[in-house]
Amino acid sequence: MSVGIDQVHVYAPQLALPLPALAAARGVAPEKLTLGLGVQAMAVTPACEDVVTLAATAAARCLRAAGVDPRTIGLLVVATETGVDHAKPVGIFVHELVGVGPHCRVYEVKHACYGGTAALMLAADWVRAHRTQARRALVIASDVARYAIGSPGEPTQGAGAVAMLVGPTPRALFLAEESGVHAANVYDFWRPLDRREALVDGKYSIDCYLDALASAFRSCRRLERPALEDGEGLLDRLARILYHTPFPKMAAKAHRRLLELERGSVTDADYEASYHALVAPGLTGVAQIGNTYTASLYVCLATLLEDEARVLAGRRIGLFSYGSGCCAEFFTGTVPTGAVAIGPTGVRETLARRTLVDVPAYEELLRHGERGGEPPADFAGDFVFRGIRNDRRMYAPTREVLAA
Length: 404
Ligand code: CAA
Description:
Blueprint: E1 3-11, E2 15-18, H1 19-26, H2 30-37, E3 41-44, H3 51-66, E4 73-79, H4 90-98, E5 105-109, H5 115-128, E6 136-145, E7 158-168, E8 173-183, E9 189-190, E10 199-200, H6 202-223, E11 240-243, H7 248-263, H8 268-279, H9 284-289, H10 296-312, E12 316-323, E13 327-334, H11 347-352, E14 355-356, H12 359-368, E15 383-389, E16 392-397, H13 399-403
Parallel strand pairs: 2-14, 4-5, 4-6, 11-12
Antiparallel strand pairs: 1-7, 1-8, 2-3, 6-7, 8-13, 9-10, 12-13, 15-16
Helix pairs in contact: 1-2, 3-4, 6-7
The protein binds acetoacetyl-coenzyme A.
């Protein structure tokens, strides 16, 4: 049975801070952020938006685009490392807001940025396990990436969600059954229960990411069928490669590591050519949105499908997911010949509706944001976080959604 992603949709907050403005405020050269890290802007959440509204908006738009009745969903998994409650999962708010029926398993998964892939693989196995019924799962990766103001991680924040409909005979990406995984207990990035912002050992986290990549990739290569010929690399069989992208330069470092692993050594010219052909096309969305933790790899996938579904029809791509702590997976998928039919995946729409904020406004939102409240007049989302009353979080559709 062929299983995979039938539809994918991205939603990110419309507020964005341009990184040159942040560089000026922090007294660093703008090129350090725009070239050194490769980030152009990062999404910032308005007070009326949180990880639930991001997830629900992406999910509602994903189901609408696919023409799927929410009541036919049998499994709803939300991956996040920005959970809003220790017991109540983000998914159950989404379940109500989006109109999923009562006969559905709903829960949340966590393993840092790997959570989205954990949920996707689990959903694919759930679909495969019931060959006689055509079952559909809704997987959502949703996060708000927060580091302390003035810390080295500050320019690698962002926010957004990706919803993926998973089922048989998919229109967006067939998932290969074999993949390479790697896990190890490391303290590279974490967020203790009492903290709002993540703690990170930045340089060490890059080493952990690259080591996990090499290990997962080697494992995937060993499982490759038909087996690789002498002198043939797995990269030779892939038309594009998408990496978990906390900042675009990380994907560049990752790609160099894989080329060196497959070819022994690589010239700068060969690396540049390979990076621009295989990796750069997937990075345009994340360069403008910033890190979205669990959603990051899938923002890259949505970007690629929106821009290149026709070119990639029938071709195989590689995907690398990394979650600090750590767990990582290198897997592959094939773009169906009909992928162009999935239409826009929300990346261009998200970027077209942006409102740029300055550094004081961004700092105010970071310090006091996500309290809930009325949406701004031009609000781009479908759902609003109204605030917390009696220890209960209150959500509602926007007036536009109610009127539609
Ligand atoms: N012009 C051009 N480039 C410049 C420059 C200038 N004027 N000044 C500096 N640079 C370059 C540097 O050479 C460096 O590039 P290379 O790594 O290629 O050498 C780059 O800009 C960054 O400079 P620094 O290393 O000095 O930056 P930093 O110390 O301020 O921190 C960071 C960088 C460690 C990534 C930090 O932003 C951080 O901690 N981020 C959060 C952690 C993270 O994202 N880790 C990634 C792996 S873990 C993961 O992927 C999970 C996850 O999502 C968190």
